[in-house]
């Protein structure tokens, strides 16, 4: 008679424990914590750095790691962050030169040979938006003629033209979460945790 | 197994509620193929072959598929998918009981009550909810509220888009921003506070009404409150699956002596599908 309501309560109890122990977002896990806090998985984000001889470079994770990245955002634990860093370090990373005019034409319906499967520009000219003290709303940055993009190759993918492999030492994965401050209204992000993995470390 | 007498329209509460559940499974089980496909197969088979609807195993399978999907996709599954799974399992438990409709009604009452108990508990315990920050933030950045806010607050579409751009800039993997400012007007904070207290109040009262041990006191308000909640909440935040499962769990608690109440639940169940129409977009057109 009461087995199903008891099951509901049991799932809520487990979810509450996971929120406490592994920072599971209250929105997930079947605990009915949706619409109760800003701390949804969408308020958490990752910053992933490739450490090379040239310095640290912010990169976009390849699509193959999207699922792990999402799990990390929903329940950020050091173990998950290390796992993701190891997986990113095991990937083959390239530095591509992307001609923005070519890319714009490709976006208009054609295909670009420069950057197949390109997700997002990752390493461009310094962006004035990056000043954390900037107190104005975001303004569009001037567009450079070309950008250099760090990108991971898929398992069976060959390196595109105008690219060169990256010799990376390690990968750092940072998990951030923003909060809302109402006066003045702004979103302020703070790091939750970070993990590193050396190139060649086992996935 | 004992069934309730038929109503004037020829269908028992169980029969109508079962069809509602099957429609829900057909339309809103999941976006994931490994949940959606078996759910559709189970629901379509039962709609076409009524004898299957009374097979407890079918409902056990439906519940298992939904719960399995929730477990596999723990990082993305919304809470109402769990509630849909519990509803399927409630059908399974009820069909195996001596008094099907009484068992189903009791399960429905407890599931609705517990759902609102835990939803309201999270809100009472969350500091960034109680001080109004959460809904203030939601109104500023949630796309579902964007057009409504242009209508209510007079804020321009460009300003709403500017806030979305600010969030996108913060979340951009290439960004090193740690803070972005959002455009705001006093209406957002005021409306946010109103939504904060309205939501936590109605959810708390709903929990009390549905978990009240007798049919007296706040229990008398159960159906009116649930219908009000579903009608008002999902008009703004159209999580249709959630509204539908709540309407079904409310419907199973009605009796033959409440034809108007049953009709109200059926109306709401259908109306929720209509809620998916982008009505503000259509009404406001080029002005929003």
List the helices and strands and how they pair.
The complex is a heterodimer of chains A (203) and B (288).
Chain A: H1 3-22, E1 44-52, E2 55-59, H2 66-74, H3 78-90, E3 93-99, H4 100-107, E4 146-152, E5 163-165, E6 168-182, E7 185-198
Antiparallel strand pairs in A: 1-2, 1-6, 3-4, 3-5, 6-7
Chain B: H1 13-28, H2 33-48, H3 50-53, H4 56-72, H5 79-95, H6 100-125, H7 127-130, H8 133-141, H9 143-153, H10 157-171, E1 179-181, H11 186-211, H12 222-236, H13 240-251, H14 259-274, H15 279-284
Helix pairs in contact in B: 1-2, 1-13, 2-4, 4-5, 5-6, 5-13, 6-11, 6-13, 8-9, 8-11, 11-12, 12-13, 12-14, 13-14
Keywords:
heterodimer, A: 203 residues, alpha+beta, 4-stranded antiparallel sheet, 4 helices, 7 strands, 25% helix, 30% strand, B: 288 residues, mainly alpha, globular
Protein architecture, described:
- The complex is a heterodimer of chains A (203) and B (288).
- Chain A has 203 residues and is α+β, with helices and mostly antiparallel strands.
- Chain A is built from four helices and seven strands.
- Chain A has helices spanning 3-22, 66-74, 78-90, 100-107, and strands spanning 44-52, 55-59, 93-99, 146-152, 163-165, 168-182, 185-198.
- A four-stranded antiparallel sheet of chain A has the order 2-1-6-7, with helices on one face. Chain A has a three-stranded antiparallel sheet with strand order 4-3-5.
- Chain A starts with a helix and ends in a 5-residue tail after the last strand.
- Chain B is an all-alpha fold.
- Helices cover 73% and strands 1% of the residues of chain B.
- Chain B has 15 helices and one strand, in the order ααααααααααβααααα.
- In chain B, helix 2 runs antiparallel to helix 4 (56-72), helix 6 (100-125) runs antiparallel to helix 11 and helix 8 crosses helix 9.
- Chain B starts with 12 loop residues before the first helix and ends with a helix.
- The model of chain B has no long low-confidence stretch (mean pLDDT 91).
- At the A-B interface, helix 1, strand 1, helix 2, strand 6 and strand 7 of A face helix 5, helix 6, helix 8, helix 10 and strand 1 of B.
């Amino acid at each position: 008679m009461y087995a199903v309501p008891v099951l509901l309560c049991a799932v809520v109890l487990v979810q509450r424990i996971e929120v406490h122990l592994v920072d599971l977002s209250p929105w997930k896990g079947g605990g009915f914590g949706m619409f109760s806090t800003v701390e949804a998985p969408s308020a958490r984000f990752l910053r992933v750095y490739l450490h090379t001889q040239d310095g640290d470079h912010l990169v976009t994770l390849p699509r193959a790691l999207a699922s792990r990245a999402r799990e990390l955002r929903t329940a950020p634990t050091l173990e998950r962050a290390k796992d993701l860093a190891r997986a990113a370090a095991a990937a083959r990373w390239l530095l591509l030169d992307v001609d923005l005019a070519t890319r714009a034409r490709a976006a208009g319906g054609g295909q670009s040979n420069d950057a197949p499967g390109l997700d997002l520009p990752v390493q461009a000219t310094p962006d004035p938006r990056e000043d954390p003290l900037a107190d104005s709303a975001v303004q569009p940055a001037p567009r450079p003629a070309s950008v250099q993009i760090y990108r991971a190759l898929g398992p069976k993918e060959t390196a595109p033209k105008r690219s060169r492999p990256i010799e990376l030492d390690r990968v750092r994965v940072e998990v951030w979460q923003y909060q809302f401050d109402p006066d003045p209204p702004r979103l302020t992000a703070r790091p939750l945790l970070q993990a590193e993995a050396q190139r060649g470390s086992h996935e | 197994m004992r069934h309730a007498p038929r109503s004037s329209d020829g269908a028992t509460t169980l029969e109508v509620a079962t069809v509602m559940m099957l429609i829900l499974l057909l339309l809103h089980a999941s976006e994931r193929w490994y949940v959606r496909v078996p759910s559709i197969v189970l629901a379509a088979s039962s709609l076409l072959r009524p004898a299957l609807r009374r097979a407890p195993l079918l409902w056990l399978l439906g519940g298992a598929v939904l719960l399995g999907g929730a477990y596999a996709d723990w990082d993305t599954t919304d809470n109402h998918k769990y509630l849909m799974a519990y509803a399927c399992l409630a059908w399974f438990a009820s069909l195996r009981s001596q008094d099907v409709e009484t068992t189903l009604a009791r399960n429905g009452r407890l599931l609705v009550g517990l759902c609102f108990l835990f939803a309201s508990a999270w809100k009472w315990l969350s500091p960034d909810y109680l001080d109004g920050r959460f809904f203030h933030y939601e109104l500023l950045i949630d796309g579902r509220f964007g057009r409504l806010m242009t209508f209510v607050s007079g804020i321009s579409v460009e300003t709403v888009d500017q806030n979305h751009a600010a969030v996108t800039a913060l979340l951009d993997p290439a960004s090193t921003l740690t803070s972005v400012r959002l455009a705001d007007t006093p209406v957002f904070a005021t409306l946010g506070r109103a939504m904060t207290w309205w939501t936590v109040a109605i959810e708390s009262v709903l929990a009390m009404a549905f978990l009240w041990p007798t049919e007296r006191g706040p229990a008398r308000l159960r159906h009116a409150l649930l219908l009000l909640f579903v009608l008002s909440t999902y008009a703004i935040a159209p999580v249709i699956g959630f509204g539908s499962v709540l309407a079904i769990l409310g419907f199973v608690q009605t009796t033959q002596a409440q034809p108007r109440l049953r009709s109200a639940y059926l109306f709401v169940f259908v109306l929720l599908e209509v809620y998916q129409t982008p009505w503000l977009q259509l009404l406001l057109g080029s002005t929003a």
